[in-house]
Amino acid sequence: MPPQKKTADLLNESLNKRILVELKGNREYRGILEGYDHPHMNLVLRNAEEAKDGEIVRKIDRVIIRGDNIIYISP
Amino acid sequence: MPPQKKTADLLNESLNKRILVELKGNREYRGILEGYDHPHMNLVLRNAEEAKDGEIVRKIDRVIIRGDNIIYISP
Amino acid sequence: MPPQKKTADLLNESLNKRILVELKGNREYRGILEGYDHPHMNLVLRNAEEAKDGEIVRKIDRVIIRGDNIIYISP
Amino acid sequence: MPPQKKTADLLNESLNKRILVELKGNREYRGILEGYDHPHMNLVLRNAEEAKDGEIVRKIDRVIIRGDNIIYISP
Amino acid sequence: MPPQKKTADLLNESLNKRILVELKGNREYRGILEGYDHPHMNLVLRNAEEAKDGEIVRKIDRVIIRGDNIIYISP
Amino acid sequence: MPPQKKTADLLNESLNKRILVELKGNREYRGILEGYDHPHMNLVLRNAEEAKDGEIVRKIDRVIIRGDNIIYISP
Amino acid sequence: MPPQKKTADLLNESLNKRILVELKGNREYRGILEGYDHPHMNLVLRNAEEAKDGEIVRKIDRVIIRGDNIIYISP
Predict the structure, then answer these.
(1) Of B14, D74, F71, G32, which sits most exposed with the smallest number of CB within 10 A?
(2) What is the tally of structural domains in chain A?
(3) pLDDT tens digits for range A10-66
């Protein structure tokens, strides 16, 4: 079995870095990853922006995003 | 592994403070966080307001919000 | 960690009192809370009324509401 | 903590009595409760009728209803 | 607590008998019950027919139906 | 309790044989069953074809199908 | 019981190889598999491309895809 990079490894490397989070319903969040719950994939972001259909609709100091609605996370 | 801020840490810091809760179906609640269930993310708010599509539709003294429908929580 | 009011605390205080239950699909129930299952949030109400889009559509002596469909509960 | 009537208590009292079961998708079943699975809320009914949008669409001698789709049960 | 007929009892009695299975999306299956998984309610049927909106659309020698999509089962 | 054929028995008998898998959203896969995860019903197929609304839309050498989306499996 | 190829076997063989991932909502990802979580099927891809309705809509260096939304994975 070759070594692999698990979800938790990549989330760990992304702590304190800017990530992109795509949710169901064409919602997108960008912000700095402060923490995450494993394995739920709930995320804590700071300095976040919410975009809908490509437009920034809200700026949010700090936000908890429920993992349930996440499609993908990109560091 | 750098220190991180977990969901429960941020919810803890938000106790007795005003938070914004966005639910599926364009519903939004604002109110003072009195408690939460971990890891379900069920919330107890007081002095809450429900908004739909940006308009306040109801004022609610106290409310239990099921975590299932939550998209994000912003302290 | 400050003291908090958990979902179960608030449900407990609401026993034998009138509550409002909002379900998915614009359904609303009002009735006297006789009991609940934790953590499923299934509820037993008596002297209940079902409203749809704001109109009372049914009166129900006693009803078990599955927690799955609940958006919020307001004591 | 005052005594309460749990879901299972009310289902127990309803054994061998006629109940009404409302499912998602405007389906309704009426029949005599023969048994239930706890906590799934799967039900066994006999002498059942299925109604859709208020009209009886089928008579069923015996039926197992999956708890997943249930909105409420009324004894 | 009066004796009751649980879901598994009724499925057991129905082994090797013809049953009707109603799924979400107006699909219906009829066939002889060869086995089931408890508590998932996955079913194995033989000599089965699939109907959609009341018309037979396929005959299937043997079929595994996932319990997830089942609304009701009628022996 | 009469002997029964469980889901896992039928999947086992179907190893290295051609099966039909119907998914939600009118998708259908045909291919040779190489393995399955129990009880998730995730499947590994080889020499597979994907059909949508009755037309073959893709040929796939090997494919993992998530059990979640499966409606039925027919050996 | 004949030997079989489980989901985890096939994912293991696919490490560091290009895979195709089909998600609900007509989304498709192609990229090199760096790791996966078992049994959630969350995936880590690098050099990934997102396609929607057959068109490449985004290039992503690294991405975590939640297993929940996956329909199939093809190595």
Answers:
(1) G32
(2) 1
(3) 999 999 999 999 999 889 999 999 999 988 999 999 999 999 888 999 999 999 999
Nearest to D72 among C15, C40, C66 (CB): C66
Range of the domain at C58: 7-74
Between chain E and chain F, the number of residue pairs with CB atoms below 8 A apart is: 60
How many C-alpha atoms does G3 have within 13 Å on its Cβ side? 2
C-beta atoms of D71 and C44 within 8 A: no
CB G44 within 8 A of CB G36: yes
The answer to whether the Cβ–Cβ distance between B62 and C74 falls below 8 Å is: yes
Q: Are strands G55-65 and E43-52 parallel, antiparallel or unpaired?
A: unpaired
Which of G12, G25, G40 lies nearest to residue A39, judging by beta carbons? G40
Q: Which residues, in sequence order, are CB contacts of E38 under 8 Å at separation 6+?
A: E7, E8, E11
C55 contact D CB<8A? no
Q: Per DSSP, what are the bridge partners of residue F70? A: F23
Across the interface, whether the CB atoms of A41 and G36 are under 8 A apart is answered no
Q: Do C27 and C63 form a contact (C-beta atoms < 8 A)?
A: no
- pLDDT higher than threshold 90 for residue F59: yes
Residue D54 lies in a domain: yes
Residues 6+ apart with CB under 8 A from G54: none
Residue A35 lies in a domain: yes
Residue B2 in domain = no
β partners of residue D50: D29, D58
Residue E70 sits in a domain whose CATH number is: 2.30.30.100
How high is the pLDDT of residue A52?
A: 87
Residue C39 CB: number of other CB atoms within 10 A? Answer: 12
Residues of chain D neighbouring E67 (CB-CB closer than 8 A): 66
H/E run at residue G70: strand G70-74
Where does the pLDDT of residue C52 fall: very low under 50, low under 70, confident under 90, or very high at 90 and above? Answer: confident
* C6 → closest Cβ in B23, B37, B68: B37
Q: Give the integer Cα–Cα distance in Å for A73 and G39.
A: 19
